[in-house]
From TrEMBL:
<dbReference type="GO" id="GO:0005886">
    <property type="term" value="C:plasma membrane"/>
</dbReference>
<dbReference type="InterPro" id="IPR032675">
    <property type="entry name" value="LRR_dom_sf"/>
</dbReference>
<dbReference type="Pfam" id="PF00560">
    <property type="entry name" value="LRR_1"/>
</dbReference>
<dbReference type="InterPro" id="IPR001611">
    <property type="entry name" value="Leu-rich_rpt"/>
</dbReference>
<dbReference type="InterPro" id="IPR035979">
    <property type="entry name" value="RBD_domain_sf"/>
</dbReference>
<dbReference type="InterPro" id="IPR003591">
    <property type="entry name" value="Leu-rich_rpt_typical-subtyp"/>
</dbReference>
<keyword id="KW-1133">Transmembrane helix</keyword>
<dbReference type="GO" id="GO:0003723">
    <property type="term" value="F:RNA binding"/>
</dbReference>
<keyword id="KW-1003">Cell membrane</keyword>
<dbReference type="InterPro" id="IPR000504">
    <property type="entry name" value="RRM_dom"/>
</dbReference>
<dbReference type="InterPro" id="IPR051502">
    <property type="entry name" value="RLP_Defense_Trigger"/>
</dbReference>
<keyword id="KW-0812">Transmembrane</keyword>
<dbReference type="Pfam" id="PF12799">
    <property type="entry name" value="LRR_4"/>
</dbReference>
<dbReference type="Pfam" id="PF13855">
    <property type="entry name" value="LRR_8"/>
</dbReference>
<dbReference type="InterPro" id="IPR012677">
    <property type="entry name" value="Nucleotide-bd_a/b_plait_sf"/>
</dbReference>
<keyword id="KW-0677">Repeat</keyword>
<dbReference type="Pfam" id="PF00076">
    <property type="entry name" value="RRM_1"/>
</dbReference>
């Protein structure tokens, strides 16, 4: 098998190889590339700034892609993280055997060509972080596609129903586009799906999460920042036992999804900017007890959270709720970010901040006699390089606090 792999570590080698090839062919453009490496099966050119080759050799923009796309035996093509610009060319005879196509993190634009959705042997299609516009085409019959990432483009229109026919799909990301309409319930047929990212679009209409009940392999789900009205029927008993990441921020939900109850390995939970009322359910503390590192419940209407039992928590945001009573008990020694301002908490700041192993950013608003606390605390070989801003109700309290803080591992400045 013919294979060429170049990375940013061997830029000179890429340049030398191509220039020599061009001189030997007696041409000054890259259209001879297909004749030189017509037997090429794998081509990886990542971080090599291909656009510079085009400029250096005075070639027409896009000619390199046209040449590569006509390689008849090519099965793997990686051109990630270059500065390729322009639309995708239409191959004359190449790419019929293509299995993996990755053009992520370039400046490619225009609409997605129809031939892209007709590659029946394709396993990986990654075009994220480009500037593609227009609609996503209808996928032809494909039993092979495993990985589909079209995120961070400017795609419009609806999610095509033909996606539900990609029965081998495990990874689907359409986030950060301008997609409209509803989320097709037929996605529930993708029983092998492990990752589903649809965040930051203009998707609307009511979405009943019951359609997820068949996706037992799902470990990452993100519907955040759409115009969705997500309906959660907690009378249903379906579960997502393998879930590790859930982001339903800004989804208009009114209660904690009960399918989280068995998500014992959850690592990331964002339910911020919703309409969840009342106290947190008792079972929430068992969700990801030893695995959860990120928790965002801010901008809801929560009234009570007695304790924060997650031992590996790094980030917690409880801001802009209606929390009352003493500050929740914390057990996370790895905590780096704690936000709880704009609540009605009282009592002392958790002593945990004096024992934190890493830098800690704390914003707690009004807590007891302290009206505002913002602390950055760091440890570096025993030397404190942190700082703190604290506002007290009286000078006497401030003096007492300074004395206490000077006896800890950080000082007021």
């Amino acid at each position: 098998m013919s294979t060429i792999r170049f990375t940013h570590y061997c830029w000179d080698e890429v340049l030398f190889w191509l220039v020599v090839a061009l001189k030997n062919r007696g041409k000054h453009t890259l259209d001879c590339l297909s004749g030189i490496i017509s037997l090429l099966v794998v081509l990886e050119l990542e971080f090599v700034m291909i656009y510079a080759l085009v400029n250096l050799l005075h070639s027409c923009q896009g000619l390199l892609l046209s040449s590569i796309f006509d390689l008849p035996n090519l099965s793997v093509l990686y051109l990630d993280n270059n500065q390729l610009v322009g639309p995708l060319p239409n191959p004359v005879s190449g790419l019929n055997l293509l299995i993996d196509l990755s053009l992520r993190s370039n400046f490619l634009n225009g609409t997605l060509p129809s031939w892209l959705f007709s590659l029946t042997s394709l396993v990986t299609l990654d075009l994220d972080h480009n500037q593609f516009i227009g609609e996503i085409g209808e996928f032809k019959y494909n039993n092979s596609l495993d990985y589909l990432d079209l995120s961070y483009n400017m795609l419009q229109g609806s999610i095509p129903s033909s996606i539900s026919g990609l029965v081998s799909l495990t990874y689907l990301s359409l986030s950060s586009n301008n997609l409209q309409g509803s989320v097709p319930s037929s996605i529930s047929r993708l029983v092998n799906l492990t990752t589903l990212y649809l965040s930051s679009n203009n998707l609307s209409i009511m979405l009943d999460l019951e359609f997820l009940s068949n996706l037992n392999n799902l470990n990452a789900l993100n519907f955040a920042y759409n115009n969705l009205l997500v309906s959660i029927n907690n009378n249903l008993t379906f579960t997502l036992p393998n879930l590790k990441e859930l982001n339903l921020s800004s989804c208009n939900i009114i209660e904690f999804p009960i399918f989280l109850k068995v998500a014992t390995n959850l690592r990331y939970l964002d339910l911020s900017n919703n309409k969840i009322h009342g106290q947190t359910p008792e079972w929430l503390g068992a969700v990801g007890r030893n695995s959860l590192t990120f928790l965002d419940l801010s901008h809801n209407f929560l009234t009570s959270i007695d304790m924060v039992p997650w031992t590996n928590l790094v980030f917690i945001d409880l801001r802009n709720n209606m929390l009352q009573g003493p500050f929740p008990t914390l057990n996370a020694l790895n905590l780096s970010y704690l936000f709880a301002s704009n609540n009605n908490l009282f009592g002392g700041i958790p002593s945990l901040i004096c024992n934190a192993k890493k830098d800690l950013e704390l914003s707690c608003g009004s807590v007891g006699e302290v009206t505002e606390v913002r602390i950055m605390k760091g440890k570096d070989s025993g030397e404190n390089k942190g700082f703190a801003f604290v506002t007290f109700r009286s000078a006497e309290l401030a003096s007492q606090a300074i004395e206490e803080l000077n006896n800890t591992e950080f000082k007021l400045r």
